[in-house]
Predict the 3D structure of the following.
Amino acid sequence: MRARLLSKHEFHRFLEKLKSQGTLVAPVKEDIVRFKEITDVSAITTEGHPLFPLKKYFSPQKRKIFTYENNNIEEVLPEKQYIMFGARLCDINALLRLDKLFLGDISDRYYQRARANNLIIGLHCEIPPNEMCFCESMGLSDSGYDLLFCDAGENFHIKVGSERGNALVQDLPESDFQPEPIKTEKKLHNTEIAAFFENDAWKKEVEKCLSCGACTTLCPTCLCFDVYDDPDVEMNKGARITEWDSCQYEDFTKVAGGHVFRQAREQRFRHRIFHKIQYYKDQFGEFMCTGCGRCIEGCPTKIDFVEILNGMKQ
Amino acid sequence: MVKPKVAIHSITGCAGCQLEIYFVEDILLQILDKIDLVAAPMIKEQNYDGKVDICFIEGSVTYDENIEQIKKWRENADIIVALGACACDGGVQQQKHFMDKEVVEHYVYGEERKHLKAVPPTPISDHIEVDFYIKGCPADKEEFLWFLKQLLVGKTPKQYEKSICHECKLRENHCLLEQGRECYGPITYGHCSIMCPDFNHACTCCRGPMKDANFEEHIKLLVEKGYDEQQIRQRMQKYAGLRVEKLMNNDKNKS
């Protein structure tokens, strides 16, 4: 499908059109940039990237899996159809990574429904939106979106990725534009890390970790959650809830009897990095990490796993 | 189903935790329908003094009679729950441990009251076995409800072990530490509805230090941000200094 051209003068009108077709989600600049449901399209920003990723629309922070009353169970599925504008290629690739986990042999029905319903309109990075970005090293694929907006001064060139996307732009003039691959100053040089499992640098560099869980919450591919029941005070009804969890917490690997498998902070940190760079790749042939840099940007003590790995010697 | 017998007792404290849990007004009657509240001196005239299933104790131990009293409650109850910062960690009054006794006595009682002695307060767990802790100054009514409901459906409630940061991040708050604020979220137990950071108020550790807290690095970070080290250490002592000290000593022995 051919790319299209949209004048920036028409940008807000185009967003209004999107908004009339579903619940529009896009980056909004507040104290920080966040993905939010849009009521006024003029609030949307194309500068910077939202610190908190898109995954909340597919696997929310806290969500009811089902509600129960006496012996009846009712499954809870996503209610809204989102049209998401402003996802960067790292965010879009992150959804492709999550697909392999949520839509594997056993599908997560909520996630599946949300993925089928939601429309993804990407925003290409002419310049990386943050100095912590290192996606150039992570082998991102140019796919996974319905449309991809590329800023070209007075116009947007719009790459079309799906029939649903095409339907939104088929009235616009055609374009031959091809975006340049994203270049990032920051790079992960050491991507073969199996030999780094035992390395003194882990303890030394991770000493300042506060175990706050910012890295996993902000990671667009971290998907771990806890499951618990929330009974109503009448006891005959309630809901089963999933809530995001983090491998950086001490209680994450706690089992019956009280044993904790990854007691030391550096073990927890190392596990996160090995999952992102090694274990997922062993299983699916690509990195889980998409190089968005949020785990570094949002870390209160600025622990930089890219620098840690780059500094390790084979 | 036989309704569990519940007692809600208080020793030395401001009684704010009890008050907080009675604020579950919307469902208070429903709760009273599920339990047999046999003793609750704040809201009941007639209070039973015998065996109960669950006994909540609020306040810290500040004189010998307190110890006798809580030992008796312990004997009479299957489950003892420490309610609020005073019962769990000693509360604000335990700061006396870190001050000059003479100065404190003089400040509170004046020249003429030399016979009144300041006794450094202790958490109830220093004297009796405690089965569960509902932390905070005051305790959070939602956590109280969560605890009670788990028990009523027949589960053993799990002690919440995540820090303030967990829920703060789930709510997409802009990290106060990142904004240069003196926030103690990472070293403090969560499950408090995150009211302070939600309203742009930095966490003051009222729910006590995490077993897994990284104190030294947290102090270093705040010093880097321009805060005074002595002030930081004092703030960490505000509600649970005794436990902070114990945990910091453990860290030292480990390394």
